Inverse folding.
């Protein structure tokens, strides 16, 4: 994840409390989703950014995952994201996200 | 007036030492993790020039293998034995680092580049033997300075080192003591962009078969900025490149727009020619050192060679209608406007479907689309997927939403209407324009009738706006009928009658 | 239990996937506050 974005994520977690922050991703495929999710939960796997060795354990979802999708206005989601469901490998993305969440998320109900 | 594509040039420069010393992934790592395993491992993954030449996507870039042929080669391409080993191709060349460092010095007009005299002596003949380098450029190559002087510049004078095979062989000096826009780092980046641009533009002019004197205007569409502290990005790369290339009758200017800049510039250049403002305009761009080795960490982790060791350059020559060459149809232009959202469906509608709709065309009326032509052999191992394929799927999925295609067509659309990507990850370089050389040939050969070129840009990277950007245009076959509007039979009769009257009047006067 | 309602949302979009502003439009409809929206570009 971009180093500046890592810095901002870290700041928001400190400012609002990690239990109040949710990260939403729009990555184009499973592996990239997993890497970004890992960065905001376990820490930066590339050892380059401010989140290196920082395990925030934030709640993180990909925007196409059914759990968050259900909370959006259907028409807005369809207009902004809907078409991409035909393009992205949603199953692969969901599997990656699920496995990272179950291992590293600290604030899931 | 139609603006035709007279020719195009595509060249690469192999710069393995710049990967290590100038790519931002590496320079960042040296700041945050100077002792990292990655920096220690990196040099073991550098390709030789021969390896970089015998790599299918690079051979496609210079025109020795077509996109269709490349698509038939199994991936990963970096594991394939490539029998193509010619550094020259019909579109351009792959220049080795040693020739390029000498060319950088030749392109510097402020005595900022100093090369080791022994290095110059060892490689001067090689540069002189290069197909596109003429005496005017060779006359600019200086004899060089002692090695100690180079070392002194780097160690004590804030100069940026120039390396070859790990050895310090030159330096780019800072152009000002305190102005950061003229620092050695910035001057290095800009002189690299300029010199690689010269390689691309000279190739394009040769391919187009025009005289250097014919070029009236040059537009640079790279991603660098030159200027001092009072006008960062003041320009003008285009004119500086035209000077070295010997385009004595040309003026020029720069256009910027991130990765979308080449597509923007093609439209602007075609418009200048179509309006009759200039007869011949060249759209051109050099390469970018910052992006070298951008995904290097993943390549090293997966024990792959560093595949981002190439600077990219391209140039397209647009001229007034010759009745033969394909032309840019300025009636079919796509635009992402300020009012368009950044939702992928809206973006694709604005860039692809609106211009087609306006002209009564459907998605299948275009024979080939060219979007992000990134080499996925570089991006897949880094988790970046295949942006070329992804874009064609997005076009197909949007067409499904519009009822122009069936959902099942999404799987077959990319191969039929798209193409695999082969361009190095050099930002503006892969953005649609690498197809123009092949599209021109395929249209001339009657294999296809048209191609839509789409450029997209990530404006948010500049932190000025969160807006997305992109434009598109269509290149199509020339019917040889001159102006699009055509001339009616009445008008022809009128013109003949007028000419005969004048002729008769002339005879009577005698 | 709601995931987004009442939460501070940080968006990391992707130019070749779903960009930040598109996610932002969706989040606004779910009763959450977007505190940061960014789009990454891998190329």
């Amino acid at each position: 994840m971009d180093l500046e974005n890592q810095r901002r994520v870290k700041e928001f977690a400190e400012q609002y409390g990690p239990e109040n922050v949710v990260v939403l991703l729009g990555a184009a495929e499973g592996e990239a989703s997993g890497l970004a999710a890992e960065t905001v939960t376990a820490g930066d796997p590339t050892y380059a950014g401010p989140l290196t060795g920082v395990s925030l354990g934030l709640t993180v979802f990909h925007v196409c995952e059914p759990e968050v999708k259900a909370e959006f206005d259907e028409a807005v989601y369809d207009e902004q994201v809907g078409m991409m469901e035909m393009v992205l490998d949603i199953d692969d993305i969901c599997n990656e996200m699920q496995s990272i969440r179950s291992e590293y998320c600290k604030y899931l109900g | 007036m139609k603006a035709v594509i007279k020719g195009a040039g595509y060249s690469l420069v192999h710069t393995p030492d710049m990967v290590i010393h100038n790519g931002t992934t590496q320079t960042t790592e040296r700041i945050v993790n100077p002792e990292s395993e990655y920096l220690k491992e990196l040099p073991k993954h550098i390709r030789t020039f021969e390896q970089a030449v015998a790599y299918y996507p690079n051979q496609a870039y210079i025109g020795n293998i077509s996109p269709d042929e490349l698509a038939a080669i199994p991936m990963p391409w970096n594991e394939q034995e490539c029998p193509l080993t010619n550094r020259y191709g019909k579109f351009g060349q792959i220049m080795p680092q040693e020739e390029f460092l000498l060319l950088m010095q030749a392109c510097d007009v402020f005595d900022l580049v100093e090369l080791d005299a022994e290095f110059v002596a060892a490689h001067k003949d090689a540069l002189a033997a290069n197909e596109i380098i003429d005496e005017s450029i060779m006359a600019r190559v200086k004899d060089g300075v002692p090695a100690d002087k180079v070392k002194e510049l780097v160690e004590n004078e804030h100069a940026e080192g120039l390396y070859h095979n790990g050895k310090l062989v030159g330096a780019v000096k800072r152009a000002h003591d305190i102005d950061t826009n003229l620092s050695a780092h910035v001057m290095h980046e800009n002189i690299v962009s300029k010199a690689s641009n010269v390689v691309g533009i000279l190739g394009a002019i040769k391919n187009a078969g025009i005289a250097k004197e014919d070029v009236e205007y040059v537009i640079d569409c790279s991603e660098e900025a030159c200027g001092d502290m009072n006008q960062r990005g003041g320009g003008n790369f285009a004119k500086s490149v035209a000077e070295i290339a010997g385009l004595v009758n040309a003026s020029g200017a720069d256009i910027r727009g991130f990765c979308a800049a080449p597509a923007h510039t093609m439209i602007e250049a075609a418009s200048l020619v179509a309006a009759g403002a200039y007869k011949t305009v060249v759209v051109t761009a050099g390469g970018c050192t910052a992006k070298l080795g951008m995904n290097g960490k993943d390549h090293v982790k997966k024990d792959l060679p560093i595949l981002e060791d190439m600077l990219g350059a391209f140039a397209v020559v647009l001229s007034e209608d010759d009745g033969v060459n394909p032309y840019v149809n300025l009636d079919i232009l796509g635009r992402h406007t300020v009012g368009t959202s950044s939702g992928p469906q809206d973006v694709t509608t604005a860039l692809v479907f609106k211009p087609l709709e306006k002209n009564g065309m459907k998605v299948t009326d275009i024979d080939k689309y060219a979007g992000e032509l990134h080499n996925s052999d570089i991006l897949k191992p880094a988790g970046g997927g295949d942006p070329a394929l992804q874009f064609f799927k997005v076009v197909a999925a949007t067409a499904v939403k519009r009822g122009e295609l069936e959902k099942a067509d999404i799987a077959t659309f990319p191969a039929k209407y798209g193409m695999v990507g082969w361009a190095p990850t050099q930002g503006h370089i892969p953005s649609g324009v690498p197809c123009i050389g092949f599209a021109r040939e395929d249209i001339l050969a009657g294999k296809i009738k048209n191609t839509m070129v789409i450029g997209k840009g990530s404006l948010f990277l500049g932190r000025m706006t969160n807006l997305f950007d992109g434009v598109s245009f269509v290149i199509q076959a020339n019917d040889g009928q001159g102006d699009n509007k055509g001339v009616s039979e009445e008008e022809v009769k009128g013109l003949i009658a007028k000419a005969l009257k004048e002729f008769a009047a002339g005879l009577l006067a005698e | 239990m709601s995931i987004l309602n009442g939460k501070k949302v940080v968006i990391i979009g992707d130019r070749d996937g779903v960009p930040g502003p598109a996610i932002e439009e969706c989040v606004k409809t779910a009763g959450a506050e977007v505190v940061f929206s960014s789009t990454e570009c891998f190329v």
